[in-house]
Specification:
CATH superfamily: Flavin prenyltransferase-like
Strand order of the largest sheet: 3-2-1-4-5-6
Order of helices and strands: EHEHHEEHHEHEH
CATH topology: Rossmann fold
Number of strands: 6
CATH class: Alpha Beta
InterPro entries: Flavin_trans-like, Flavoprotein, UbiX-like
Pfam families: Flavoprotein (PF02441)
Keywords: Flavoprotein, FMN, Prenyltransferase, Transferase
Distance between the termini: 29 Å
Mean pLDDT: 97
Protein name: Flavin prenyltransferase UbiX
Largest sheet: 6 strands, parallel
Low-confidence stretches: none
GO molecular function, one term: flavin prenyltransferase activity
Radius of gyration: 15 Å
Shape: globular
């Protein structure tokens, strides 16, 4: 599959990095776009810069390049995952504001009826956040809050991250063994 991965300035960049690692290992093609605040959080939380990200993905786009391939419905992709997804980004997508490449690619993903997965990490959420997420779900997006479960009895932070990444992979139809399933 060809999967677009968007990374915004919400906390939780570790989920994006692990997802990219799992998808690449499974042989999928990753096209990535990171917002300016996404770069700041990636650097702060994970020590990852543009050069390091370039090595992790197949194609890394500049978020200001609204003419890039992923901005067009004629560029075939299989899905888009925005992880983590800030409430700003969710709000822009919910209201059709495509003012950068990430929000344009998400708009195109919805328009082309391909899976759009949003992984919000914000907490608590107020009514406007919830309304935007509901509007996106009604438009066809899948909302996967970054709230890992504990039934698999995680022992490490990596176990919690893998649980969330596994849930994202489930929605993409990507087989994995990232966590023990409920019996």
């Amino acid at each position: 599959m060809k999967i677009v991965t968007g990374i915004t300035g919400a906390s939780g960049s570790i989920y994006a990095l692990r997802l990219i690692e799992v998808l690449r290992k499974a042989g999928h093609e990753i096209h990535a776009v990171v917002t300016d605040s996404g770069w700041q959080v990636l650097s702060h939380e994970c020590g990852v810069d543009r050069q390091e990200m370039q090595r992790r993905v197949d194609v890394l786009y500049n978020n200001d390049d609204t003419g890039a391939a992923i901005a067009s419905g004629s560029f075939l992709t299989d899905a888009m995952v925005i992880v983590p997804c800030s409430m700003k980004t969710a709000g822009c997508i919910a209201h059709g504001i495509s003012d950068n490449l990430l929000t344009r690619a998400a708009d195109v993903t919805l328009k082309e009826n391909h899976p759009l997965l949003l992984v919000p990490r914000e907490t608590p959420m107020h009514a406007i956040h919830l309304e935007n997420l509901l509007k996106l779900a009604q438009a066809g997006a899948r909302i996967i809050p970054a709230s890992p479960g504990f039934y698999h009895r995680p022992q490490t932070l990596d176990d919690l991250v893998d649980m969330m990444v596994g849930k994202i992979c489930d929605q993409l139809g990507v087989r994995h063994s990232l966590f023990e399933r409920w019996h």
